[in-house]
């Protein structure tokens, strides 16, 4: 197998969502019971009232949310009528254990406080990959069977593709944030009983497999 191309990772992020089996329609319960439980659960990470915001003027019930900024804003934990969501900026796999503790503390506290059960879970990774040699087109052209000569006008400088399955989506496309770079998105659905550690391990494996398929390696 040819040597892999080293790539720099730009603007990585991680998102996770737990869906309630039955949506929460009582907003007082969302604002008071669930939010109070999460606030108490996050005390080990020094969360204060300054770290809690309520989304105002939501266009619909799905947009209602209480947001907690944790670890200086690195992690955002949201409680919505439909479930709990987490957004992590510039994640690193070395931080997986810490993130797992925050996720477990928040979700378990909310589920117990409102007597809800999980229906399904969802995890996704987003990042931009900047190859240190060659072009983004060199990488993606191996996977797209298209006679670019039939595309009239300026030369084609990028190609993208997507892989869809019932439980996952992989997208590789042109980056809009970095020149000569790829935008990569990995999404996967999980059952209600899968632990966050299992979810993180699977997504890490997905990332490794996709990078290997692309012939890229990152630090």
The Cα radius of gyration reads: 20 Å
Shape label: elongated
Integer average pLDDT = 91
How many strand elements? 10
Total domain units: 2
Q: N-to-C SSE series? A: EHEEEEHEHEEEHE
Low-confidence sequence ranges:
none
Helix content: 25-40%
Structure summarized in a few sentences:
With 219 residues, the chain is an alpha+beta fold.
What does this structure look like?
The protein is built from 4 helices and 10 strands. With 219 residues, it is of the alpha+beta class. The chain folds into 2 domains: 1-19 and 120-219, no CATH class; 22-116. Strands 1, 2, 3, 4, 5, 6, 7, 8, 9 and 10 form a 10-stranded mixed sheet that branches. Helix 1 crosses helix 2. The two termini are 20 Å apart. The mean pLDDT is 91.
């Amino acid at each position: 197998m040819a040597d892999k191309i080293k790539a720099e990772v730009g603007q990585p992020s991680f998102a996770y969502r737990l869906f309630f089996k039955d949506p929460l329609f009582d907003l007082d319960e969302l604002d008071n019971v669930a939010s109070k439980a999460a606030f108490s659960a996050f005390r080990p990470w020094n969360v204060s009232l300054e770290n809690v915001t309520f989304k105002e003027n939501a266009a619909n019930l799905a947009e209602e949310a209480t947001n907690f900024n944790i670890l200086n804003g690195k992690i955002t934990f949201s409680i919505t009528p439909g479930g709990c969501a987490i957004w992590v900026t510039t994640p690193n796999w070395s931080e997986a254990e810490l993130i797992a503790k925050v996720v477990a503390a928040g979700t378990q506290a909310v589920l117990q406080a409102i007597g809800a059960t999980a229906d399904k879970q969802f995890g996704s990774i987003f990042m931009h990959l900047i190859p240190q040699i060659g072009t983004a087109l060199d990488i993606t052209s191996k996977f797209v069977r298209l006679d670019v000569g039939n595309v009239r006008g300026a030369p084609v400088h990028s190609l993208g593709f997507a892989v869809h399955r019932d439980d996952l989506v992989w997208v590789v496309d042109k980056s809009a944030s970095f020149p000569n770079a790829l935008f990569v998105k990995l999404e996967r659905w999980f059952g209600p009983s899968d632990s966050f550690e299992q979810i993180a391990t699977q997504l890490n494996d997905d990332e490794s497999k996709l990078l290997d398929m692309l012939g890229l390696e990152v630090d």
